[in-house]
Amino acid sequence: MFATKRTALSDGHCNLSQILLQNKIDVAFVHEPYTIQNKVVGFSKCFKIYTSGKDRIRSAIITNNTDMDVIAITQASHENAILTEIIYEDLKFYGASLYLPIDRDIEQNLGTIEEIIRLTKGEGLLLALDSNARSKIWSDICTNARGRIMEEYIITRDFIIMNSDSDVPTFESSRGHSLIDVTLCNNKLAQKIRGWSCGEKVSCADHNIILFEIDSWTYGSKTTQHKGKRYHTNAERWGTFTQNLTKNLKQKFNCLDDISDGTECDNEISKKIKLHPDTDQVLQKFNSVITAACDTTFQVKRFTNQNAKKRSVPWWTNDLTLLRK
Questions:
Q1: Which residues of 213-222 are buried (b: 16+ CB within 10 A; e: fewer)?
Q2: C-beta of residue 26 within 8 angstroms of C-beta of residue 7
Q3: pLDDT, tens digit, 9 for 90 and up, residues 243-255
Q4: Is the pTM of this model over 0.85?
Q5: What is the pLDDT of residue 151?
Q6: What tens digit of pLDDT does each residue of 12-51 get?
Q7: 6-20, 51-65, 251-265, 306-320 — which one is most confidently predicted on average?
Q8: Where in the chain is the domain with CATH 3.60.10.10?
Q9: CA-CA distances (angstroms) from residue 44 to 16, 32, 134, 170, 311?
Q10: Domain 6-218+309-324 top-level CATH class
């Protein structure tokens, strides 16, 4: 990990500089920072601040570690998004802070994420989002229209949601509270992230501070690839998937054919599982049922080999990074 340090996604920016220094936090992904004439203020010269654009700045990345190599990637950056390449010890990944305006069609914002995916080319990727979208998938109490669009996008792009189940909302104000701040990463970086928490540090803003750690050393090999099947999924096929899954479950667990209600089917399967003497066998049944339902519903993905090794060197510059992209 970053020694005893952490990477922090934070929206409670009014006391952020003190929190970064006191807790030796390396990186902060910030949304709606305090600005004067579109310049982020409130931080001493020991911090490096990365933003993009000339209008109102809604996203920033702030670093507090001189041993880290950080380069801003301007092609996918603007007032509402900042993408950086971050290298520290054995760790290299791309980190982006994104603000998705509630008054703008969320589909437009997903275009920025698409460009980030294209530029990062399968490397470790972390997205810190103020999504202004609500979904039960990341533990909110409801799902709105923006949330449903985000859900489908996250699934189709194989992102992993790092938010842990929590009763602490990421956003709190006199108007209410919700969980609209989402931490996403790809499979290559997910194994290195741990300790996600919200609200441990007091924030005087309407967004609570989110903290998590990223290991900067590797476990044997550089990456761990999922060796099983992976599928192209989309919202239009979920109804078919549910039907296929229900049919397979009833067959595998010998449920009555005339049971059509989903709750009744769940209850009967639950009873059979409790009485089953072999837990491993039950898990194997579930695995085979889910795999069969996926096989009959979704298209299987094909993989490409992306194991090219890239290293940071002292003479590497921002211009060279932009040319490489």
A1: bbbbeeeeee
A2: yes
A3: 888 888 888 888 8
A4: no
A5: 93
A6: 455 788 888 888 899 999 999 989 988 999 898 999 999 9
A7: 51-65
A8: 6-218+309-324
A9: 12, 18, 35, 27, 30
A10: alpha beta
Q: Exposed, middle or buried: residue 111 (CB in 10 Å: 0-12, 13-18, 19+)?
A: exposed
Tell me how long the chain is: 325
Exposed / middle / buried, residue 36 (Cβ in 10 Å: 0-12, 13-18, 19+): exposed
Q: Return all residues near 1 (Cβ < 8 A) that are at least 6 apart.
A: 194, 213, 214, 215, 216, 217
